[in-house]
Amino acid sequence: MKRPFLIMAFLLSAMLIFASCEETPNDVNDDKEQSRVLVVYFSCTGTTKRLAEYAADILVAGIHEIVPEVPYTSADLNYSNDDCRANREQNNPSARPAIKNGMENMEKYDVILLGYPIWWGQAPKIIYTFLETYDFSGKTIVPFCTSGSSGIGTSDTNLHALAPGINWMSGRRFSGSETKNGISQWIESLNVNSKNQ
Ligand SMILES: Cc1cc2nc3c(=O)[nH]c(=O)nc-3n(C[C@H](O)[C@H](O)[C@H](O)COP(=O)(O)O)c2cc1C
């Protein structure tokens, strides 16, 4: 008589243990909600976007794309034309291309991984707009970039003046063919934990 009851009790507790261990999509979303790390990126042709998505995935962190008010066309990005939009912006120290989408909850984050493509050795000017829009006091920013062949150069350190007095970590350049594993190794070396930073 006792045996069926014991079997039932065992099965029930096994089911409860299993249910509490299994990570459901909602759990992942909760983790993202609670994360103190945010991956922010600007990307015109998808290269930086792909790596930003790897980073957010690995960190179970939120992700935010910087969307330009006026999208960049392929003519705008045709850097062999001296007068293309991207070149004009990069040559103009006061260019600050407008951002279409704002962020309301920046205060929620302690660590921001900031991704951009290299444009003429520097970060696109829209990154400057982003850095001048928010108060980053008390935060850590980790720049990363993608490029055809150039290194990160001064593109990361030149951003420091736009958000002074915060914890700027060294930036890192990746090629367009970087793997998720490569991003994972980089993130490990940063020692930033997505939860409760
Ligand atoms: C206006 C412009 C300037 C660029 N300047 C450089 C450069 O100085 N060095 C380099 O290696 N790649 C340069 N590139 C190539 C981009 O950095 C590279 O394709 C990047 O991975 C694109 O990222 P995205 O797909 O996220 O926009 C330039 C691209 C554009 C559009």
Protein described:
This protein is an alpha/beta fold and 197 residues long. The chain has one domain: 3-Layer(aba) Sandwich (Rossmann fold), CATH 3.40.50.360. It has six helices and six strands, in the order ααβαβαβαβββα. Strands 1, 2, 3, 4, 5 and 6 form a six-stranded parallel sheet that branches. Helix 3 links the parallel strand 1 and strand 2. Helix 3 crosses helix 6. The longest helix has 20 residues. The radius of gyration is 21 Å and the shape is elongated. The protein starts with a helix and ends in a 7-residue tail after the last helix. The model has no long low-confidence stretch (mean pLDDT 90). Flavin mononucleotide binds next to helix 3, helix 4 and strand 4.
Characteristic terms for this protein:
binds flavin mononucleotide; alpha/beta; Rossmann fold; 197 residues; 15% strand; 6 helices; 6 strands
What is the N-to-C succession of helices and strands? HHEHEHEHEEEH
Q: State the shape.
A: elongated
Describe the sheet with the most strands: 6 strands, parallel
Q: What is the number of strand segments? A: 6
Total of helices:
6
Strand % is: 15-25%
What is the fold-level CATH name, i.e. the topology?
Rossmann fold
Q: Give the helix level as a range of percent.
A: 25-40%
Rg over C-alpha atoms, rounded to the nearest angstrom = 21 Å
Low-confidence stretches: none
Span between termini? 53 Å
Provide the structure class: alpha/beta
Instruction: Spell out which ligands are present.
Output: flavin mononucleotide
